[in-house]
Amino acid sequence: MVSRRKPNWKVAFLWVFGTILITFGAMIAGHLEQGLGVDENEFLFGLAIAFFAILLGGLLWIIAASAIAIEINKEKQVIQM
Question: What range defines the domain where residue 47 resides?
């Protein structure tokens, strides 16, 4: 008997939202310049926002990957029984 998995939209949402955060973080970091009209504090604030967006996006990817691994292990345990 083949067990059918129902799609887990929460994992897909974490994966997509993590991708969006990493993309926005990279866009912010790519456009940062210290020039006329940009104070050092504003530059560091933009850099911090980009860093934390990329960090949070990577964390969401890790959470999604671990949730998928746990789900696969549960399926393997059910099949072995």
Answer: 9-80
Tens-digit pLDDT profile for residues 41-80: 999 999 999 999 999 999 999 999 999 998 888 888 877 7
- What confidence score (pLDDT) does residue 1 get? 47
Transcribe 24-81 into DSSP letters. Answer: HHHHHHHT----TT--HHHHHHHHHHHHHHHHHHHHHHHHHHHHHHHHHHHHHHHHH-
Residue 19 falls inside a structural domain: yes
Domains in the chain, number:
1
1 belongs to a structural domain = no
